[in-house]
Structure formats: structure tokens, C-alpha cells
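Hello,

Our lab assistant flagged a job as stuck in the queue for most of the afternoon. It eventually completed. Since we weren't sure the result was trustworthy after the delay, we are filing this so someone can double-check. Below is the sequence as submitted and the structure that was eventually returned. Let us know if re-running is recommended.
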Amino acid sequence: MPLLDARQRPLRDLRISVTDRCNFRCTYCMPKELFGPDHAFLQRTELLSYEEITRLANLFVAHGVEKIRLTGGEPLVRRDLHTLIAQLREVPGLKDLTLTTNGSLLRAQARKLKEAGLQRITVSLDSLDDETFKRMNDVGVPVATVLDGIEAAREAGLGPIKVNAVVERGVNDAGMVDLARHFKGTGIILRFIEFMDVGTTNGWKLDRVVTLREMADRINAELPIEPAEPNYRGEVAKRWRYRDGSGEIGFISSISQPFCGDCTRARLSPEGELFTCLFAARGHDFRTRLRDGSTDAEIAAFLASVWHVRDDRYSEIRTAETNGSVPRVEMSHIGG
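-- returned structure --
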């Protein structure tokens, strides 16, 4: 039976982070000065195995999850990810299996991912300007590499493709219209994300946030758009469409227009901790139960006990006291 939390929100979406490692050092997620060569990443034995992930996926789907998204870190740096995808495609009742990636490794893996059963893909691309993008990913990867990865995904039949751009005032906001114009009419859905205070290491400040209203106004001034109805309850992105019928665009507005009331997401970290909110300070340990001989029924009961008391609504109550003084899990660890 579907699980309901303390606010009567069902569990529908599970984001599974398969690794805490990434080949980018994006300044808003994994800043190089804190995630340098001496950073202690998880060891292989600490990560959930693909078999452990699949076992949990079966239990989560049996209790209401319909969609699984694989994240990281950068999920494509984990070896043989297509093997996990093939296993997850066999989970009875799973309706949607997708993945979020920085796109840099897609050319080599897109076809294998599709053949394994991946249905859709989301690619992160914060700017079309090479210098801006290189500054943001902080490892010198050019825009052309990501665009080629997107084309590889299209050639492999991974669609509809979505592209996410995190917008920071004074960093890449001047290029929003260029991004919109580039993907307009291509069938690729571009989504702009307000810069969020996930974790405590990305230097978030409210004055660096470009709100949904401002983003929509800037796009509309040059490429007329209008609001569109959501596809389903709990959809994170606010949908807008181009008035000329050439496609749609989305805005994710955790800061200015929180959507906690309809949040149906849980996040599983690489070492098997379940976080019931993107802004949570702690998770719930499933790995120990997977490895101590617990039965499926016992693990399912633990899941129910976690979800039934879930009362998270961080974005609705965001105040000065949440400005970084309270430890929170980093976005690079649970995939945003």
C-alpha cells in the first residue's frame, strides 16, 4: 500500500545517488577548495552494491514509488552503471527510470544506457558561454563536450531530454535567454533552477538568487511564454510554454515559491542513508539492515516508520537561522 507522511504526502519518487564522486567541481555544488585531491570519498565497500540498490528499489516500489532517478555525484563515473539500470528495469511496477548527469561522459555511454533500459535523461548545462561554463564546472570542460553528450543521448533515443541550468546572479544569469533560444523548438525541455542553499559549502546568499518571476520576465521579454498546467501533482518544475507553440520551458523555484506541500520525494545516498528532504541534516540507515540479515518485511517496516513521521517543509520555513549554521547534507552527496 502507498505510504503517507505526517502531512498526507505519498511516497512516489526515489532519487538514488550511486556515487559521491564527480569529475566536475561546480562552485554551487562541489567547490574545489573543499573537495580537493585530499577529500575522503567513500570507499567501494561503503557503497551500496547494485544488488542492494535493486533490493531496496523493489521494496520502495511495492510501497508506492513510481519513478526512480539515478544521480550522484556524477552517476556515470560509477563503473558499469548500465548493469544497475538493467536490474532496475525488472522491478515490477516501476513506471519511470531516468538519470541526471553532467553530460561529459554521455557520448561513450548513451547507447549502452538506452539498451539497458534507461528511459529518459536530464543533463546539467549552466551556460552556453565557454568561459562562464568552465568557471562554473571549475575543471575546464567546454560547452561543446556537454552539447555532444546531449546529441549522443538524442541519437540513442533517450527522450524526452531535459536540460537543467542553475542560475546565479552575477555568474551566469546574463546567458539565460541564449540558453532558451538555443533549445527552443528542439524538443529538449530547458529548466532554470533557483540557486539553492543545499548543504553548507556553496556560499549561498539570498541576493545571489534570481527568482522564478524575474527569470520568466527576462525570457518573456524576448521569447514570449505563458504558464502551462502541471503534468501531475508534485511536479517540481513550474511549466511554461512558448506562445508560438515551439515547446515548453520550466522553472524550479524552491526559494521563491516553495513546493513542500506536494513533495513526494525521498533520496537514497550512496552508502544507503535515506533522506526525506533535500535540506535534511541526517539520514536513516538502510545499509546496516541490508547487511545484518534483516528480512524484506523488516526493512519495509523500517521504511514505513521513517515515512509516516516525515514532516519536512524546510523551504516553507527558511529563515535567518538556516543560513548555514545548521549542518545539512551536501547536494553532491544526494544528487539535488
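-- support follow-up --
The delay was a queue issue, not a problem with the job. The result is valid. The chain has one domain: 13-334. The mean pLDDT is 91.
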